[in-house]
Specification:
The protein is of the alpha/beta class. The protein contains 13 helices and 12 strands. The structure holds guanosine-5'-monophosphate and manganese (II) ion. Manganese (II) ion is lined by residues 35, 99, 125, 144-145, 177.
């Protein structure tokens, strides 16, 4: 089983960079998910086992159901502690950028990240890396950045020293980015890695419950409401969308993470190929967050680029619109119509607009 992914010169560069660093910061993308947190926390654990302290700086809040992750409570939030986060970025001599491919993905933290004089190293699995770095470890064929983190630690010969906390974080990231190993997870190496993580004493069933069975009563009621009252199904097109308004969020005492993964739910309908969710920002007017998920070879990232100012992976992408929810619904309907051929299977993918 070949776990190694770095070239010899990359190994050397990475070792040297870590060795020489004094002030290390780890950054992840806006609205961190299980993989952003798992890879960042796992990498921080690893650095600490090398005798190197580091601080994780995240652009904003992570979902409530990830609070339990080992080390999560010491993450510095840029939106909440802007001055402290800016100082950390400014004083850093090494910044690891984990689970994102460009500084636009850290949203409001972009200027502070770009302005930092620190050396930057990207470790990521999204397409099209676009940041000036001293080392870019970009592998879009990996299930998750957490898998990449494992492979790097393994290749550097540091698996023996890996703590249980590190293993928990890596497992959690791999699990969340593959929907509990139900997609993007057919590489045999993934299960070799899991078998190794289990030797560290992690309780994978408990990690699953912590993440997927940890909703409040209100979140479950909201999810039921959205699927029964707000879902628009276009059976002929094998596509559907639903909306989440600010009013829905208020009515159901919404907290971050309550709608996590819900965009996958309509894909459980037989024959469904595409699911889109539109969510009003909880504070800013005329800002709609778009999430897209697709099945098989329908490229939802192309639709996200064409219609929603976004992008992402073939089967999971996102974007945003600066308009009202009603106007956003119109855009979704236009997008569905534009891709009718590809969705019905009767025509080719349309040209990018
Ligand atoms: P989510 O629906 O969970 O917000 O995003 C799904 C996937 O799409 C994630 O892998 C994320 O990185 C990617 N994504 C979300 N928003 C954007 C965006 O605005 N631009 C790009 N390039 N990717 C995005
Ligand atoms: Mn990821």
């Amino acid at each position: 089983m070949n776990i190694n992914i770095l070239s010899n010169s990359e190994v050397q560069t990475l070792n040297e960079i870590i060795e020489n660093a004094q002030n290390i910061v780890i950054c992840c993308h806006k609205s961190p998910d299980g993989d952003a947190l798992g890879s960042s926390l796992g990498w921080a654990n690893f650095l600490s086992s090398c005798g190197k302290a580091s601080t994780i700086v995240a652009p904003d809040a992570y979902p409530d159901f990830l609070q339990w992750m080992p080390g999560a409570n010491s993450i510095v939030r840029y939106d909440k502690h802007t001055e402290q986060a800016t100082t950390l970025l400014q004083n850093a001599d090494l910044i690891f950028c984990l689970d994102f491919n460009g500084s636009d993905r850290v949203d409001e933290m972009k200027d502070a990240l770009d302005a930092s004089p620190a050396k930057k190293v990207m470790i990521d699995h999204h397409l099209n890396p676009r940041m000036e770095t001293v080392l870019t470890v970009s592998h879009p064929n990996m299930s998750s950045t957490s898998e990449l983190v494992f492979r790097i630690i393994w290749q550097l010969g540091k698996f023996e020293e890996m703590s249980k906390e590190c293993a928990v974080n890596i497992y959690c990231g791999m699990m969340t980015d593959t929907g509990g190993f139900t997609y993007n997870s057919t590489q045999p190496e993934i299960f070799f890695i899991i078998s190794q993580l289990l030797t560290k004493g992690i309780d994978k069933d408990r990690i699953y419950r912590n993440v997927f069975n940890n909703f409040s009563q209100w979140a479950i009621r909201l999810r039921g409401y959205l699927m029964s009252q707000k879902l628009n199904v276009f059976s002929d097109l094998h596509a559907s969308y639903f909306t989440i308004s600010r009013r829905d969020m208020r009515d159901f005492h919404f907290i971050k993470g309550d709608a996590e993964g819900l965009v996958n739910e309509p894909l459980r309908i037989k024959g469904m190929k595409l699911s889109v969710s539109l969510r009003e920002d909880d504070r800013r007017d005329n800002l709609i967050w778009v999430s897209l998920r697709s099945v098989g070879n329908f490229p939802c990232n192309k639709m996200a680029e064409d219609f929603f100012n976004g992008g992402g992976h073939l089967n999971a992408s996102g974007g945003r619109l600066n308009c009202s929810l009603t106007e956003a619904e119109k855009v979704v309907r236009e997008a569905f119509a534009y891709y009718e051929g590809a969705l019905t299977g009767w025509g080719p993918l349309p040209k990018s607009r």
